[in-house]
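ok trying again, last paste got cut off:
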Amino acid sequence: MTASIQATGSVILPKVKMQIGRSLTEGMSTKQRSTFLVSGVISATSWRVPLMLGALPQLNFVVPMTVILMAYGLLLAAAIVVSHSLLFVLTADKTGKFDESADRAR
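nice, full thing came through this time. structure:
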């Protein structure tokens, strides 16, 4: 979680400040939008998994740590894949082609 917070503070927040008065992703390249999504997914997953583990005391001393860490990794990977899929779907134009206009603007 510490690495996620540092990445958010040093990479994401300065970009958000630059977007004040505009749409959040206006003028951003696909790579920048992807960075925003991955950062958000990692942050959300990294906060919710410990919360869930704390709410399920039945797992204490029953489920091995390696199983929990593998489940966390799989959940994180699945969340990243889904977020990238949504990025592609939401930025596709009506013809089904990927919209690269934000990339050309830079």
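cool. The radius of gyration is 17 Å. Residues 30-55 form the longest helix (26 residues).
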